[in-house]
Design a protein that fits this description.
Number of helices: 7
CATH class of the largest domain: Alpha Beta
Structural class: alpha/beta
Radius of gyration: 19 Å
Oligomer: single chain
Strand order of the largest sheet: 8-7-6-5-9-10-11
Strand content: 25-35%
Helix content: 10-25%
CATH topology of the largest domain: Rossmann fold
Number of domains: 2
Distance between the termini: 10 Å
């Protein structure tokens, strides 16, 4: 079984309708497989979603908008037939994890970002949930050599410490208006992250730092100031630019939302359930020439559970 989000056609920006051996193909050890594809809504598909939120001072205007819309967004996804768990990691301009809540329900996440008397960037500061104390302890000194905003810090914190469910697709949505700042730490750089990531989840970017074509022009430099949306380009995620105060933010219209709503369960019969396999996934939009959009992903050393 493969639990996967829908695939966005880069030519149209719309999800590709996945049909068995029509627009979607699976080979196991170079042998084409017969497929059964079930859409979300027909079955409940596990999705573990993490919001990583830059809560540095410059995000003050965006923070309230993000918080008030997270609850609606999660409820919308649940209505599409997804078995959804949600977590949040807040990270600041000192390279620190300054807040988190492990995977929980839409209601608990909404309550976390709408705690009494907390506004702006404070909404994603502080630790909550049944494991708040262990998370806070783990955050102390985490990425201690990083000294600026860095979404990779939040993503790797969640990856290593959150309670991911077996068989769930992993989705990250990173909100920031600043470059990824690794402070010359390869582990927390874009290249270092992608090299070890191995397709563990897609990272989607919501950027509120101005026009991506001109923002920080002349400042981009590996290991110092890196483009945060490169995390999306290199993990199969999507990118959304919003106003600097995020007043126009509607999470239900993010490109990733369409992909999640089109999530599918792909099933096929293996020739050897106890062996080690090479599995290749291929997607095509069914077009030829300039309209064609084809892609593939190969997984080596696969063992089925």
């Amino acid at each position: 079984q493969i639990n996967m989000a829908g695939i966005i056609d880069p030519k149209t920006g719309l999800p590709i309708t996945l049909t068995p051996n029509g627009t979607f193909f699976v080979t196991e050890d170079n042998i084409l497989q017969g497929l059964k594809i079930t859409k979300a809504g027909s079955t409940s598909l596990k999705t573990d979603l993490v919001f990583t939120v830059d809560n540095s001072g410059s995000m003050g205007g965006e923070a309230d908008s993000i918080a008030t819309k997270i609850g609606k967004f999660v409820n919308y996804l649940a209505s599409k037939g997804l078995d959804l768990k949600v977590g949040i990691v807040g990270y600041d301009d000192g390279g620190d994890v300054s807040g988190a809540i492990n995977f929980t329900t839409a209601t608990e996440v909404y309550n976390y970002v709408n705690r009494a008397s907390l506004y702006g960037t404070s909404r994603t500061k502080g630790f909550a949930g049944t494991d708040a104390t262990p998370l806070q302890t783990a955050a102390s000194g985490y990425a201690s050599a990083v000294y600026g905003e860095n979404g990779i810090v939040g993503i790797t914190f969640a990856d290593s410490l959150f309670a991911w469910r077996s068989g769930a697709q992993r989705i990250y949505i990173n909100f920031t208006d600043e470059p990824t700042q690794p402070s010359n730490q390869t582990w927390f750089s874009t290249d270092g992250f992608v090299k070890r990531w191995s397709g563990k989840g897609t990272v989607h970017t919501v950027w509120s730092g101005g026009d991506t074509a001109t923002a920080y022009a002349g400042y981009w430099q590996k290991l110092v100031y890196e483009k945060p949306w490169d995390l999306s380009l290199r993990t199969g995620g999507t990118i959304k630019s919003v106003a600097t105060n995020a007043a126009d933010l509607d999470l239900t219209t993010l490109p990733v939302t369409g992909a999640l709503a089109q999530s599918v369960l792909v099933e096929f019969l293996t020739s050897n359930p106890t062996g080690t396999h090479t599995v290749k996934l291929t997607v095509t939009n069914g077009q030829t020439g300039a309209g064609a959009s084809d892609g593939q992903k190969i997984f080596s050393g696969v063992k089925y559970k």
